[in-house]
Amino acid sequence: MAIYARHAPEKTVFYQTLARSWPGVETDYRAADEAIPKHVGSEFNRYFKCGILQHGFVRLKCPNCDLERIVGYSCKTRGLCGSCSARRMEQLSNRIEQEVWPNADARQWVLSFPFQVRSWLARNPELLSAVNLSVCQEISEFYASNVAGQLQGDTYQGRPAQITPVTGAISFVQFFGSALNLTPHLQIMFMDGAWCRGLGGLRFVRVNKFSSESMIDVIHGIIGRLEGVFKELGYVRNDGEANEPELAEEVPLPFRPRAPKAYRRRGGDKSNVLFQQTDPAMVSIQGWCNLHYRWFSLHAGVAIKADDRSGLKKLIRYTSRSPVYPSNLAYVDPESPETSFVRLTLKKAWRDGTTSLEFSQTAFTEKMAELIPPTWFNLTRYFGVFAPNHFLRDFIVPGPKKKKTSDIDLPPPKKSQPSCTRAPAEYWEPWADLLTRTFGINPMICSCGAKMIVEESVTDADGIAAMMVKMGLAATPPPLGKLKVTGELQYLFED
User: Fold this and answer.
1) Torsions phi, psi of 146, nearest 5?
2) Helix, strand, coil tally for the chain in percent (to 5)
3) H or E element, residue 319
């Protein structure tokens, strides 16, 4: 019998750190009479079962060589599990590139907020949704007005064209920064132009001469719209002073870490002018299409051509990625993993020379808990022609394609019979296909080349224990918390 675990989470530094520290964090918060949000506790509990065979598995068998293989279940969490996040990222990028994004240029707009605004956005999903809509509306007006100006005097067969520019965007909401800090910000993919419906039919018109100076009006307009949103929802009084309102009890509050600071090893010259605070009352151009104004940051320097579909998928993967890659984590002292700090290697060195951050294991766990998104909050949002009810959507969006089914998956729920708690799986994709495309391993194909058959799904404790004993493995799942030396078998965190 062959054992197939998707990613062997108990062998990674990420899983080990969370498993050691989370029970202690729960105990400390309970002792301090501080409530941990329900969605945070549920996310951790589900992650600790992801890929662990002792919590259930599917047994496969080859009809030719009788080889058996077992595959653990996934947790499908959104904030912790790197494996499930990678599959979701692959599915989303593949769907948008093939079924949603038309033959049009794309541009990435990234908007980050001042510190006080970040706190408001993290605590109130309703405010974050309103801010996202206002930002998309302002950028949409920028594209529509520019395209309308370019088409002034445009004719078709000797008659003036009917100019009705419409735009479209897909907004990705991210709650994390490179230092694992709680930083809600928007990464929006806009079509780099607008669609015009005239006498000659629909056509896409690009924006000419896009530059940093052309974005100055955009950032002014965004801040003006957001001031109106903050006042309307009670976050800013009429005199301009901040006033955070009380939230309803059903709003899931974010996790509050007790040790929010990262342990950084810095280098470089601290007196460099790049690190000095600029005047917030003036628009500062930090680079190509990179503006800072009143502690807001707007960046739009990444553009993808219409025929660069691989570049489009890479951009979607980046905007929908998980907070941390387990491969970027390591113990500072591998000889003492129980007490060692955790080193996070940054993808890109900071301006002051910092290449990595070091956290205590408890601080790292609290930071990961802080980054878990609120329950039922959509991290991907569609605007303009991509919206479901837009009158031009069927003429611009390519539409869904037929999916192949896999024997390991059950059919998705029918559209005529939606679940009372979940939307019907309209764009469902087989789990085995996602696993193959993400990790390069197909669990449904035997080593002899034959297609394996699902024998049974084992979820009861007795069946799991019997199978574990048969394979010579421990019948109980890896324990949580720090291990105590008792002379018993300690297979947790050992290679």
Assistant:
1) -65, -40
2) 30, 20, 45
3) helix 309-319
Question: Dihedral of CA 139/294/303/132: which sign?
Answer: negative
Beta carbons of 278 and 271 less than 8 angstroms apart: no
* DSSP 3-state of 224: helix
Report the sign of the C-alpha dihedral through residues 357, 363, 365, 367, in that order. negative
Band of pLDDT at residue 267, cut at 50, 70 and 90: very low
3-state secondary structure of 340: coil
**CB atoms closer than 10 angstroms to residue 325:** 15
Question: Which uninterrupted H or E stretch holds 484?
Answer: none
Per-residue pLDDT at 405 exceeds 70? no
* 169 pLDDT higher than 90: yes
Confidence tier at 220 by pLDDT (50, 70, 90) = very high
Going by the DSSP 8-state scheme, the letter that residue 99 receives in this structure is I
**Contact by Cβ (8 Å): 291, 284:** yes
**Beta strands 329-331 and 155-156, pairing class:** unpaired
Asked if 406 and 417 touch (Cβ cutoff 8 Å), the reply is no
DSSP 8-state symbol, 235: S
Backbone φ and ψ for 23, nearest 5 degrees, come out as -60, -40
The pLDDT, as a whole number, for residue 56 is: 86
Locate 14 and state its tokens: 């990420």
Higher pLDDT, 418 or 304: 304
Residues belonging to the chain: 495
pTM for the model stands at 0.83
Question: What is the per-residue pLDDT for 256?
Answer: 66
CB of 344 closer than 8 Å to CB of 359: yes
What pLDDT, on a 0 to 100 scale, did the predictor assign at position 222?
94
Comparing C-alpha atoms, which of 40, 39, 41, 50 is closest to residue 15? 50
Residue carrying the six token digits 């005047």: 279
Residue 275 clears pLDDT 50, i.e. is over it? no
Q: Give the CB-side neighbour count of residue 392, counting CA atoms within 13 A.
A: 19
pLDDT of residue 10: 67
